[in-house]
Every structure is written in C-alpha cells, then in structure tokens.
C-alpha cells in the first residue's frame, strides 16, 4: 500500500505508518514519525525525521541535508546528494548510497549490505562487523576495528587502513601507507 502525502500533511503523520510514504514535497518534515514502511521523498531537498527509528526503505535522492538522529534499522538508504551522512544510532541497514557526502558518520552501525560513499574523506564506522562492499575511495583514513566480513573494500586514497579482524578472503584496494613503504625499503636495503 502506498500513501501520497503533500507537504502540509507530513507534519501531522502519526508515530507509526506501515504503508510506504510517497511525497513530492520539497521539504520532508515529519517530527512525530517513528516507524515507516518506506519513505520515497524524491523531490525533497531537505529531510527531517528526528524521531524515526525504523524504516523499510529511505529514498531521498535530492536531499542536501538528512536529519535522522534516532534511526536504528533501515532497509536500503539512498541519500546520494547529502553533503554529510550522519546516522548516529543506525545499527543495521541494507545498501547505503551516500555518494556525494563529504563525511560519513555511522558510529553504531554493525551490519550493512553495502556502503557507497564515494566522495567521503572522513569515514566513521568503529562498530561495523559485516558488509559485502565498502566503497570509500576518497577516505583519508579507514579504521574498521570490528570488521570481520567484507567481500570488497575500496579506500584507494587512504593514508592509513586498519581492519585487524578482517578475514583474509576479502578483496581490499588500498595504497601502501608511508610507514609500510619505509619498512619495505629498509628490509630491501638489508637484503642487498
């Protein structure tokens, strides 16, 4: 079931809506919404759902700002144009597409199907344990202390990379960090 809302009715949404919400509003503002069957706000340039905790899907593909401070569980999240992706309470997600975000902050995220934050130079994922794909080629540093399973990791420009618990079967694309290069040169000089 789909429900089409105009911007005037979004503020009056009840706390729980099991239907998919589809809106053409330029600003999505649902201050009371806690649970949603999915949100499709393709025209919204700003997204504000401060009480949202669970959403089956979240599509805000034109939003420059995203405010979901209490979101804990979500299916796929498509927020490709946000300047900064921050979901401080998010624990589990499907695919996260925040391609143009300069900062990616999900400190409680433990499991995600995939993360695509192509332009993020700052990435914060200290609790991430599992993700099929992590694509953050512009990240300056990538520290994934809890990561155990990932099929693909791309951090091509990272000056430091750490994933001490990662299983060896993963494909990791990171440049050699300066400390590694110095150590290799030293070993090479000793073997001459």
Description:
- This protein has 192 residues and is mainly β.
- The protein has helices at residues 7-10, 178-191; strands at residues 2-5, 16-17, 20-23, 27-29, 35-36, 39-40, 46-48, 54-55, 58-59, 65-67, 73-74, 77-78, 84-86, 92-97, 103-105, 111-116, 122-124, 130-135, 141-143, 152-154, 160-162, 171-173.
- It has a 10-stranded parallel sheet with strand order 1-3-6-9-12-14-16-18-20-22. A 4-stranded parallel sheet has the order 2-5-8-11, with no helix packed on it. Strands 4-7-10 form a 3-stranded parallel sheet, with no helix packed on it.
- It contains 2 helices and 22 strands.
- The protein is elongated and about 50 Å long.
Distance between the termini: 72 Å
Q: How helix-rich are the residues, as a percent range?
A: under 10%
Approximately how much beta-strand content do the residues carry? 35-45%
- Choose one word for the global shape: elongated
Given the helix and strand composition, which structural class is it? mainly beta
Total number of helices: 2
List the helices and strands and how they pair.
Layout: E1 2-5, H1 7-10, E2 16-17, E3 20-23, E4 27-29, E5 35-36, E6 39-40, E7 46-48, E8 54-55, E9 58-59, E10 65-67, E11 73-74, E12 77-78, E13 84-86, E14 92-97, E15 103-105, E16 111-116, E17 122-124, E18 130-135, E19 141-143, E20 152-154, E21 160-162, E22 171-173, H2 178-191
Parallel strand pairs: 1-3, 2-5, 3-6, 4-7, 5-8, 6-9, 7-10, 8-11, 9-12, 12-14, 13-15, 14-16, 15-17, 16-18, 18-20, 19-21, 20-22
